[in-house]
Amino acid sequence: MGITVPQINFSIIAPELIISAFALVVLLLGVFFPRTGKNDYLGYVSLVGIVVAFLYTFPIMGKSQYAFNNMIVADGFGVFFKVIFLIIAFLTVLISIGYARRVDIDFGEYYALIMFATLGMMLMAAGTSLITIFLGLETMSIAIYVLAGLMRGDRKSIESALKYFLLGAFATGFLLYGMALIYGSTGTIILEEIAAYIKSKPELLRSPMIIMGIALLTIGFGFKVATVPFHMWTPDVYEGAPTSITAFMATGVKAAGFAGFIRVFFSALGAFQPDWIAIMWLLAVATMTVGNVVAIAQTNIKRMLAYSSIAHAGYILVAFVAGNELGTASILFYLLVYAFMNIGAFTVVILLGKRGEENVLISDYAGIGFKYPLLGASMTIFMLSMAGIPPLGGFMGKFYIFSAAVKAEYYWLAVIGVLNSAISVYYYLRVTVFMYFREPEREITGLTFSPASVVAVIISVWGVLYMGIFPSDILALAQRSITGLL
Amino acid sequence: MIIPTVPPSCYLVLGAILFTIGVIGALTRRNAIVVFMCIELMLNAVNVSFITLSRFLNSPHGVMFVFFVMAVAAAEAAVGLAIFVQLYRTRETINVDEINLMKW
Fold first, then answer.
1. Which value does ipTM take for this structure?
2. Among A191, A440, A464, B100, whose Cα sits 20 to 30 Å from the Cα of B48?
3. Is A240 within 8 Å of B80 when comparing Cβ atoms?
4. What is the mean pLDDT of residues B50-69?
5. Mean pLDDT of A374-383
6. In 10 A of CB A144, how many CB atoms?
């Protein structure tokens, strides 16, 4: 029993440190310099923090360096995810300025918790030991439980926080038990050592203890990324939470969940790939199909986007099953483009509401396309991108995912995925049809567009178009990022 | 008098039984606080397993893990109880069956 003193290397975790420092500053500013109704300046301070953290990801790009007793790593995979999380946090803070004031949650804690959640996500992507991944997951989850219930007077918001909290904590139990069983079978919590140990002891491949552990881990991560049958919380939580937080959850939490999922399953449990693939295949098909079919019946746009996010988790699982280099790279690509198109869509949802009148029914979108042409056009771009229509980013993402599946000879999976994609066109286009071809039943007037949210829409449109028209740069970057992981 | 040593497998079985009780409780009980207590039971069952394995494998990692799990469970309890209080203020109930503004 020996404990070695870890080698300290703060430059590896510089982005995390900066994010937490700024989160604490924002928290204190909110306490000591509160300006009721004018707390937007906290949002700008947070934006500065996120940009500084982003700049500090450059020194660790292209490296592969362990630190803190191999508990954390600065490798391409981690850095790519860190960049995704920081972009998501940046856009979330941008759309919160204005919206948070509208729903009376613009205190320091709001922005601080967003940054703490981002910190947790970054730890999850960079962690190379079960402890770091678990801590990152919980830092993120606990912050988000609070954020979901932050609209204290709103019954739906509290309900969504309760549901997310109970189911999230329940899933954490499964995840932890899985980690305990894997630790018990291999005697270590460092992912690479787990892989090495399994390699040195082939009889472990049939050990019920470790297989049980893998099953429990699948349940735990499955909850976080919302795969069927662990998706029941998603629509309720997404509907009730503040819309900016819904956008954050749908993109950030999902991306972080997949980061941990890929890291644990590919770098520690790669030897079990033949065993888990059948289960993942089923999960992928069920997730895509249930998500898309149920989304058709929705009348509330936040719920529809929630089911659509379940379906997108299914597409990403297709690439997970494929498990080859293109598959993993396409997951990174897809999560980035998904962040742009989903946050963009939620921003439009936010912009179409005003104090006391959120206008979240799809029928509220009737006639919007002519009344607010630019907003309607942006929403159309996001919807078409999610449906996978070229030349938008969503199409390229799906194209890479399905070609990875075909390359790995999962033809049926690719076929089911494409069919699902066709189903999804129906409900995405329905929003567009409402915007351009329906007479409004009631006038939506007096909208005030927050400039920050408009900037977020512009960035999202740019992201979706750029990744659709020039996808090869980002895909090459993603492919470079995953070297050494598989 | 020699106290016979309990084999580690017994502790692992104890952990598994506690975990199962926790899961069943979390799925069947209707009071949100009891559900949360069952979830805490699951986490503590995991802690029992971790400590047993740590001692059995003669490695410090499992015990370290338990400290983090306890810290996280405490943070979770703080947030969870705050949510329950707020829920009771808006609804006057913490029965999870009655928390059903949103479904399908």
1. 0.95
2. A191
3. no
4. 93
5. 94
6. 27
Residue of A nearest to B38 (CA): A170
Chain A environment of B17 (Cβ under 8 Å):
none
Out of A138, A145, A240, the one facing B83 most closely (by C-beta) is: A145
What is the distance between the alpha carbons of residues B81 and B75, in angstroms, rounded to a whole number? 10
Asked if A387 contacts A430 with a C-beta cutoff of 8 angstroms, the reply is no
Surface-to-core class of residue A382, CB atoms within 10 Å of its CB (0-12 exposed, 13-18 middle, 19+ buried): buried
With CA atoms as reference, report the closest residue to A120 among A95, A146, A158, A99: A146
Q: Which residues contact A63 (CB under 8 A, 6 or more apart)?
A: A74, A75
Residues 2-61, chain B, touching A (beta carbon < 8 A): 12, 15, 19, 22-23, 26, 32, 35-36, 39, 42-43, 45-46, 49-50, 53, 56-61
* pLDDT, tens only, A171-198: 999 999 999 999 999 999 999 999 999 9
Residue tagged 């742009």 (tokens): A340
Cα gap A60→A239, rounded to integer Å = 38
Helices (H) and strands (E) counted in chain A, each on its own, are 20, 2
Tens digit of each residue's pLDDT (9 = 90 or more) over A50-60? 999 999 998 88
For the residues A222-249, what does the mean pLDDT come to? 93
Residues of chain B in contact with residue A161, where contact means CB-CB under 8 angstroms, are 83, 86
The residue of chain A with its CA nearest to that of B90 is A155
Domains detected in chain B? 30-104 (1.10.287.3510)
- Residue position matching structure tokens 């888990």: A276
Read off the amino acid at residue A406.
V
Cβ of A159 within 8 Å of Cβ of B101? The answer is yes
Give the minimum alpha-carbon distance from B44 to chain A in angstroms, rounded to a whole number.
9
The closest alpha carbon to A56, from A113, A94, A9, A16, belongs to A16
Confidence check: pLDDT of A4 > 70 = no
- A123 at the B interface (CB within 8 A)? no
CB-nearest to A131 from B45, B65, B99 is: B65
The shortest C-alpha distance from B71 to chain A (Å) reads 10
Give the pLDDT of residue A466: 95
